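Re-run requested by the PI after the first attempt was lost when the workstation crashed. Everything re-entered from the original request form. Ligand of interest: zinc ion.
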Amino acid sequence: MTTKDEKLDNICEKYESLVSVEIHTQLKTRSKLFCRCANSYGAPPNSVVCPTCLGLPGSLPALNEKAVELGTMAALALGSHINMHSSFDRKNYFYPDLPKSYQITQHFAPLAIGGSLEFEKKGGRDRVEIERMHIEEDAGKTVYDEKTGESLIDFNRCGVPLLEIVTKPASLGPDEVYSLLNAARRLLRYLMISDCDMEKGNLRCDVNVSVMPCGSEKPGTRTEIKNLNSFRAVKQALAYEKKRQVGIVESGGRVKLETLLWDASSGTTALQRSKEKSNDYRYFPEPDLPPLILCEDVLHDIKASIPEFPSARIRRFMETYSLPLQTAELLVRDKELADYFENALRYYDNAIVLANWISGHLMKEMNERSKSIVSLELQPEHLAQIAELAGSGKITVVSAKNLLSKTIDTGQSPSDLLSKNDFSIESDENTLRELVIRAISLNATASRDYRAGKTESLQFLLGQVMKLSSGRADPLKASKIIEEMLEN
Ligand code: ZN
Ligand code: MN
């Protein structure tokens, strides 16, 4: 780092960034926002389209009720004020991936305003105020074909329902923005409002950022950063942009109102368009859709359908089941996993053993198979049986892990597998002795190391004994025998 950079870093500490975030998240509905096309991902290009989402003349939009429900649920979860009367407007602009040449959004009367999002930060928790939330439709996708140098357009995404959440500008560092995005994603996922999978473009965010000297009341001119493909990119872009803006201000320049694109490969922002003359989207009310009026009954039903919030559930898991915070958080990261844990508890009530099995061995199986708890198709009852067998010492932990893999592989019940295969614990003195002798003779260096004072060799040899016994050797007895033999 050059001294000039260091100097700028020091100066940066005397400035704070005002940041607001716009989160666009795809709502988890079966069909699109205004037509009956499936809201699906990964279909062949331009195969999930119809006259309405292609904007062909004569087609009319009809609002998807589920999208309103999910959007309202998100707004309630953030403590926003629901506008019982909201409406849709046209945002007009020309772009190849927008066949109608306008996007239907809620500009004048959004679904909800206000509320706040809580997030963790160094030394505690904080909250950021929400400006507004509204429902709008997604545009298509432009795909650049490197082979031919052509830009191709896939209209499948046209009309997919989006929820846009806009936060109020707040003095936030890059790490805090990162944390608040994670909090938003956790909540939306937990409530099954959106999958929030950034790789699939389910969740996209733009940030607005300006700088001002710490303690000042007058924020500088903001820039908007787009093309942020990961939360990590948001963090990096905010740090970069703060430094860039402070550099301009310190050298007597003026930050310009601009839209910038983040370039992840170079770690810099580049100008997309100048906003000196603000964009004119010629917003006007959508003439083909009536106002959206929520009635009290509907709102009541949506309220009733909201599950226990993640933060409350984490607290309950800690209090009711005596789980440590970390384990509770791990289980509650995913609503389906938390439900699974509580289902399994009905068959085996040792919460700590069960939670450890889920957060340890079971999550490892899920990761290795790239499966969610639902797609793994392991019955909670079966996991409970395995955890109980291991917890009570009827089989070794290694055997229980093998039994778990086999149960997942075959779909058979652990008791069936136990009757067909030998998972029983091997505690016969003579058999164990033979196994230890074999392990020692196969690993001469390990025994030499042990005698030379490397006690961790004992663990290694025990591992070998477990291997030779297909995980069935009683580990306590086996390690005693190993110790005995090595000492003599
Ligand atoms: Zn359609
Ligand atoms: Mn938008």
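Saved to the shared folder this time. The longest strand covers residues 124-137.
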